[in-house]
Amino acid sequence: MSDCIFCKIVSGDIPGDIVYQNDDVLAFRDLNPQAPTHILVIPKRHIATINELQDADAELVGKMYLAAKEIARNEGIDEAGYRTIMNCNAGAGQTVFHIHLHVLGGRQMSWPPG
Ligand code: AMP
Known about the structure:
Elements: H1 5-11, E1 18-21, E2 25-29, E3 37-43, H2 58-75, E4 82-85, E5 101-105
Antiparallel strand pairs: 1-2, 2-3, 3-5, 4-5
């Protein structure tokens, strides 16, 4: 998608502070971190929202979570705990329409989220 900022990070057209990648998934630090560790895990292929996921994407979504697990270990937040969130559509706070798993840690999290 030519007008998607996360696709531009995948293609290298705009910079990202990349912490992890494999053939299917890319992860980079959030520009506006909400916790000491705040990393976004995205599929390299453009998918706008959770609502567009297909059955064939099940493995891809699993790979996003496996990446999150790896990243949490690399960041040293796996034992203390961390939160993963994927917002869907504007009412949930989604602002970038290329699915992304937020990985947040390094501080105590509260519940419920706002
Ligand atoms: P959401 O509100 O769930 O769609 O999350 C979008 C996230 O993307 C926000 O936390 C933004 O701070 C972050 N973000 C937007 N543009 C960039 C960028 N170029 N590089 C890194 N993070 C970004």
